[in-house]
Amino acid sequence: MTTTSTTLPAPPERRTATIVMACLGVFVAYLPITSVAVSLPAIGNALGASTAQLSWVQDAFVLPMAAFILTAGVFGDVHGRRKVYLTGLALSAVGAVVALSAQSIAFVWVGQALAGTGAAALLPTTLALISHAVPDFRERGKFIGIWASSLMLALTVGPMIAGPVAENLGWRFIYVLPVPFAVAAFAIALAALPESRAPHNRRLDWPGQVTTAVAVTALVFGVIEAGVNGLGDARVIVALIIAVLSGAAFVAVERRSDSPMLDLALFRSRAFTVTTLIAMISFLSLIGFIFVLSMYFGLVQQLGTIEAGWRLALMNGASMVVGALAGKLMHRVQARILIGGGLAAVAAAQFALLTIDADTSFAAIGWRLVVLGLGMGFVMAPMTATAVAAVPYRLAGMAAAGNNAFRQVGGALGPAVLGALLTAGAVSSLPRQLADAGIDGELRERVVDAVDGGGLGAVAGLDLGADTPTVMNAVGDAFLDGMQLCLIFSGALTAAAAVLCLVMLKPGTGAAH
C-alpha cells in the first residue's frame, strides 16, 4: 500500500514548496480564531446571544479541532497528507461561507464547526509535511519556528483585518477573510505539493476516534453548562460522567489496538509528556484569555472592533516576531529555559493585568499584552519541536498530531473554563455593584434577572431610561471582578506550567545534541 517513494524525504526542489504550503495551511487554520473573537460583542448584539452562547461560537470551532485532529493525522499517514490538506482547505472555506450566511447563532456554530474540522485536518498535516520534508530534527526546529510564526501571523492579522471589515461591512463579512487564502492555497497545492504518507502502514482507529470525540465534547459541554447552571445541574453531572467514562474507554482501546490513533507509548518520553501537558495548559490560558479580553474591550471599554483588533494584534504580533527566533535559539539555549521563561513572562503579564479597569489607556494595557505575546512566542515553536524530536522519526507525525490535539483540548476548554469563571464572578458581584451605585428595588432585580438569564450582554437590551449610564457602569465593574478571577486562575495555571517545565524537562532538552 505504501511505496518507497512516499517514505523518503522530499527532494530539495520540492522541500521549499512543501514548507511554504505547510505555513500557508496553518495560517488558514488559525485565521478565524482572533478575527471572530474580536467580533464577538457585535455577533452577540446582532443575534441576541448570551455569554454562554458566545463561548460556544469559539468552542464550536475549537472542539472539532480537538476531537478530530488525531484522526486527521492518521488519515494523512494512510491515504496521503496532500489529500487531507486539500480537504482541510475545502472545509475551511465551506465553513466560512455557512457562517457568513447565518441568520441565527446556531448557524454560526455550524459554520464554525465545519471550519474547525478543516483546521483539524490542516494542523497535523502541516506539521507532518514539515517532518517529512526535513527529517533532521536539528534543522527541523528552524522550520517549525517559521510554522509557529505563521500560526501567530494568522492570530495577528485576523483582528486587524476583521476590525475594519466588521465596522464598515458588518460582522458577517469577517467570515470572508479565510476564503481567498483557502482557495489560493488549494490551487497552489494541486500544482506544487507532493504527496507523502507514513513510512509504516497504519489503519484507521474508529473506536479510538469515537471515544475521544465523545470525551472531549462531553467535557467542554459540561464545563460550559456548569458556568451557566452550576455543578449540581443534572446535565452537567451526566456530561462530566460521560467524559470520564469515554476518556477511560479511549485509554483502554488504545492500549489494545494494533494500530492506535495515539500510541500511548509516546508518553514514556518525559519530554513529550511534559510539552504536551504544557501545550494544553498554555492554550487553555491563551484562547480563554483572548475570549475574556475581547468581551472586556466590547462590554467594559465600549471599543469598536477596530480598536479592539489593534490591541489583540499587539499581543499576537509580538509573539509572531519572536517565534522564528525561538526556533533558531533551540540549538543554543535549552528548551526548558525557552519554554519555562516564556511561560513565566506570560504569567507575569496576566498578573499585571489585574490592575486594569474601564479607563485603562491603550499604552497601559499595550505593554502588558506585548510582554504576554513575547512570552508565548518563546513557548510555541520549542514546545512543538521538542515534542516531535522526543520520539522516533516514524512516530513524528503521530507526536505532532497528539501535541496539537491536547493543545486544542486546552483551546476548547479555555473559553469554557474562563467564560464560566467570568460569569460566576460577575453575577456574584453584580448585586453589590448595583447597590453601591444606588440602584435598588425593582430595577436592580430586573437587571440581575436579565444577567442570570442571558449574561452580561443582556443588559444592553433593557430599557433603563435615565439610569442606563449608572447601570452599565455597575455592570462593567462586575465584569472586572469576574475578569480578575479569570486572570488569577489563568496566571496561576501558567506559572504552574512554567515550574513544571523547569523541573521536569531534562537539562539539554532541545539543545544541540
Automatic annotation (TrEMBL):
Stored Gene3D superfamilies: MFS general substrate transporter like domains
Transmembrane segments annotated in the record for this chain: 19-40, 60-78, 85-107, 113-131, 143-161, 173-194, 206-224, 236-253, 274-297, 309-330, 337-356, 368-393, 405-427, 482-505
GO cellular component, one term: plasma membrane
Pfam families for the chain: MFS_1
Iron-sulfur keyword on record: no
Keywords: Membrane, Transmembrane, Transmembrane helix, Transport
Compartment(s) where it occurs, according to its Swiss-Prot or TrEMBL record: Cell membrane
Membrane topology of the entry: Multi-pass membrane protein
All residue ranges annotated as the Major facilitator superfamily (MFS) profile domain in the record: 18-509
Keyword Membrane (UniProt): yes
An example Gene Ontology molecular-function term: transmembrane transporter activity
Protein name, UniProt field: Putative drug resistance protein
Lineage of origin: Bacteria, Bacillati, Actinomycetota, Actinomycetes, Mycobacteriales
